[in-house]
Design brief:
- The complex is a heterodimer.
- By secondary structure, chain A is mainly β.
- Helices cover 0% and strands 50% of the residues of chain A.
- In chain A, strands 2, 4, 5, 6, 9, 10 and 11 form a seven-stranded mixed sheet that branches. In chain A, strands 1-3-8-7 form a four-stranded antiparallel sheet, with no helix packed on it.
- Chain A starts with a strand and ends with a strand.
- Chain B is mainly β.
- Helices cover 0% and strands 57% of the residues of chain B.
- Chain B is globular and about 45 Å long.
- In chain B, 37% of the residues are buried.
- The mean pLDDT of chain B is 93.
- Classes of the chains: A mainly beta, B mainly beta.
- At the A-B interface, strand 5, strand 9 and strand 10 of A face strand 4, strand 5 and strand 10 of B.
Chain lengths: 115, 111
């Protein structure tokens, strides 16, 4: 139990639709990172939010966007869904944006299926 | 070249044996190293972190770091069937803000 909560846990969307995934970070954690994990692969970094600003981004198109709120919770939005977006979306929180000892803790994830 | 590489496996060991999982990382200034365990259908959970060269032990788990060889490993002693999972190696680099993951090694412990 990491204290990181995500919703919804499972959802099915149609190609072209939009989806919003939500995350509440662990108490005391001000940084949230989002990852995409396709079947059989490791988590791929999407972006990170720190103090309500995007702090860094991986190799994902602009239709992947996010928000962080004053209470450090976060949303991941994906527009114009494609079949390849089907994956486990993981939210991870941490106490800092990087540096020695920075450890990220994952929520249970949101399973997205695009049909 | 991928930044963090792991043998995808599967690695199969008998119950009670030592399982050895390996990870190499790219030629950059590295800082923090982590091992996560991921059961099928679940999210990754942190097992261990290591920051300095040498060994770090926690119960049945030992992490080994060799920065000169750009190599980090995880040893699981007295392997149990409940250890069957995918083990993810993760690295953060100096000046970096993100944690980078390998593709994971699947471990099967046979009863």
């Amino acid at each position: 139990e990491t204290g990181v909560t995500q919703s919804p846990t499972h959802l099915i969307k149609t190609r072209g639709q939009q989806v919003t995934l939500r995350c509440s970070s662990q108490s005391g954690h001000n940084t949230v990172s989002w990852y995409q994990q396709a079947l059989g692969q490791g988590p791929q970094f999407i972006f990170q939010y720190y103090r309500e600003e995007e702090n860094g981004r991986g190799n994902f198109p602009p239709r992947f966007s996010g928000l962080q709120f004053p209470n450090y919770s976060s949303e991941l939005n994906v527009n114009a869904l494609e079949l390849d977006d089907s994956a486990l979306y993981l939210c991870a929180s941490s106490t800092q944006t990087g540096g020695l000892g920075n450890t990220i803790y994952f929520g249970e994830g949101s399973w997205l299926t695009v049909v | 070249q991928k930044e963090v590489e792991q043998n995808s496996g599967p690695l199969s060991v008998p119950e009670g044996a030592i399982a050895s999982l390996n990870c190499t990382y790219s030629d950059r200034v590295s800082q923090s190293f982590f091992w996560y365990r991921q059961y099928s259908g679940k999210s990754p959970e942190l097992i261990m972190s290591i920051y300095s060269n040498g060994d770090k032990e926690d119960g049945r788990f030992t992490a080994q770091l060799n920065k000169a060889s750009q190599y980090v490993s995880l040893l699981i002693r007295d392997s149990q069937p409940s250890d069957s999972a995918t083990y993810l190696c993760a690295v953060t680099f100096t000046g970096g803000f993100k944690t980078i993951f390998g593709a994971g090694t699947r471990l099967f412990v046979k009863a």
